[in-house]
Amino acid sequence: MVFTALIFSDRLPSKLPIGVIIQEDSKFARDFLFAFQNSPGLLVAKICTQEAECESALKSQKILGVVHLPRDLERRIVRGEKLVIGLYLNGQSLIAYNMVELSVQNVLMSYSQPLQVKVESHVINNASLDYRAYLGIGIVAATFHLLAMIVAAYVLGNLWTATNIALAFLATFLQHIIYTYIFHSWAGISFALWQWGLLVPASFLMLAAGFGFCTTVFAITMSMRIATSAGGLIGGPAFAFSGLAFPIFAMPFAVQIFAWLLPLTHFLKIQNALRMGAIALPFIRDELIILAGFAVFWCGLAAIIGAKR
Question: What is the per-residue pLDDT across 157-194, written as a single tens digit (0 to 9) for each?
């Protein structure tokens, strides 16, 4: 409850990371850049001279939007022509999308009041801005993230044998893959074989981490009730902190740490990044390493404590 309250403690997210494409060295271009850099709602995290530089950062989610200043900015201002400024946004997060768009428009309205400025917004990844698919697929992952922990606690409390534990984990894992495929098909999202080849091990590692966590709690307390409660306490609100419904960067720092420690957060990052194609592979690799670390840590700790019982 404390973390949930902290998420909404600030009225609006601030310091939203964006990129700015500047293709001319003029006073007007520098003035626009200065205006963005001094906006309390924005953080200019990347300055590019070519579209490809900022496009890569946007697709890998290092920034949330890209402002493209026109190449002939100074000439158009001197001639009194209307300025058309491109704004490219990642449509995977509704809140981040709206906040970046609003902040950029506020900067342009306040700075360029005497000028005629039009903002053209372009959306990548979920161009239709239909969030049912993203939330639905995310909820499936969150449900099985929680289910893995609850199943682990139940099996350990009632049917504690190595075979039963392995079968329970395998059943949970296979069901997650099946339901993930069903929801992807429902959302019209088609993954290539190599993308499933990354998503399947990510699912395995996420569930293994959750399974290992509850097994560790049970091995320490020898209580199914405590292990179940611990799983519910961590897995229940995990979706709210995963970054899918509310951007992690806008949460207080303590909550960001908690969100980072949740295996679900990293699985959803991988799942979303896979929709961007091969450009996101370095980002996916890093998230898989983190998930593997969680799985090894919790399963290893459970095995060590369990061996001493």
Answer: 777 677 788 888 898 999 999 988 988 887 777 888 99
Looking up tokens 């019209």 gives 188
Last residue within a domain, chosen from 124, 142, 176: 124
Which residues, at least 6 apart from 127, have a Cβ–Cβ distance to it below 8 Å? 91
Closest CA to 90 of 215, 249, 218: 249
Give the count of beta carbons closer than 10 Å to the beta carbon of residue 203: 24
Partnered with residue 86 across adjacent β-strands are 68, 120
Max intra-chain CA distance, the chain: 81
Distance (Å) of CA 284 to CA 191, 280, 291: 15, 6, 10
Q: What are phi and psi of 252, to 5 degrees?
A: -60, 155
Alpha-carbon span 152 to 306, nearest angstrom: 14
Place of tokens 């579209």: 51
Q: How does pLDDT run across 139-154, given as a tens digit for each residue?
A: 888 888 888 888 888 8
Highest mean pLDDT among 8-17, 80-89, 102-111, 207-216: 207-216
- Decide which of 112 and 16 is more confident: 16
Domain that holds residue 281: 132-308
Backbone angles phi, psi at 62, to 5 degrees: -75, -30
The CA distance from 1 to 61, in Å, is 28
Tell me which amino acid residue 53 is.
E
Domain count of the fold of the chain? 2
CATH classification of the domain holding 90: 3.40.1710.10
Q: 190 exposed, middle or buried (CB, 10 Å; 0-12, 13-18, 19+)?
A: exposed
pTM check: above 0.85? no
